[in-house]
Design brief:
The structure holds two protein chains of two kinds. Chain A is mostly beta strands. Chain A has one helix and seven strands; from the N terminus they run E-E-E-E-E-H-E-E. By secondary structure, chain B is an alpha+beta fold. Classes of the chains: A mainly beta, B alpha+beta. At the A-B interface, strand 2, strand 4, strand 6 and strand 7 of A face helix 1, helix 2 and strand 1 of B.
Chain lengths: 139, 245
Amino acid sequence: AVRPLKRRLPKRTNELPPPNKLPGIFDDVHGSHGRQVCRRHELYVSFRDLGWLDWVIAPQGYSAYYCEGECSFPLDSCMNATNHAILQSLVHLMKPEAVPKACCAPTKLSATSVLYYDSSNNVILRKHRNMVVRACGCH
Amino acid sequence: GGGASGPRPSPGCPQRRLGPRERRYLQREILAVLGLPGRPRPRAPPAAARLPASAPLFMLDMYRAMAGDDDEDGGTPERRLGRADLVMSFVNMVEQDRTLGRQEPQWKEFRFDLTQIPVGEAVTAAEFRIYKLPSTHLLNWTLHISMFEVVLEQSNRESDLFFLDLQTLRSGDEGWLVLDVTAASDRWLLNRSKDLGLRLYVETDDGRSVDPGLAGLLGQQAPRSKQPFVVTFFRASPGPVRAPR
């Protein structure tokens, strides 16, 4: 997977950042050993970069969001953890060699629609379900 | 062009140029997810013809409606689209006319290449769209527009036809005329190698046949934004099985 560049944390403000902004100092993003907790990471793939604009009409690119981060005990509410994931992370503490941590994975996905020409110059519109990550969590 | 909506990189989104190998790998993977065997290579129209065409304009409108539902995956779909997950538009490749000067009824026939329809897709609806201008020859007349599928062409007599739809309008009306051709879809899915032939007749109240062109119906010679086309709506089918990587 293409990895994003490291980001600087935003400056301290008196207002809470909107939910869709990158996590800042108000969010406990650092789990054990300073690693980031499970969350959604943003990544955008431009169809222009792929040289596809001669046949793709819309959209201009694809939101290739992905989930990454630690699912370590205690799992915070912001990690969207299932009860099972909470238990598994606890069991992992007791038996780390036998039971892995819960996985950081998409918990909500949305569709994306693509409008494009085929080789016969017909115009095709297709909806692809479960394509874009909306939320991540520990499962 | 056209100002199509769609995802754009958010302000905090990292921007990075893809390397050649990354680009090739990404292309292959995305094409596989889209269910395409390879990268489409549409024929570029000549520079003079690069004006907005009717089918892409209509489909762009459909895209905006469909993309507006994307965030509500699983919710109530936009009414116009129903449960369609795939919409295809086809521009006609051949047009024939039988017009004034003959004894037989006058008609206009359109042929569409449907070989690009994916196998296994179930049709929920299909429409033939043709633009009508106000008729300058027939004033204040009621016109009956009927559409048939050309099932079998006969060399020694009239072709075998299958009735599809009938619309009644006034000679002074203007706008897109939409004829339901869904009933033809059963046959075209069985016989993909054959072009879809659609024949259009225009008659007056007293049964007199009228040249569709004189009735104001535009064919292939119309401006690109007003040329006729077929649009087909397909129900979701499971995506093609991807080979394991």
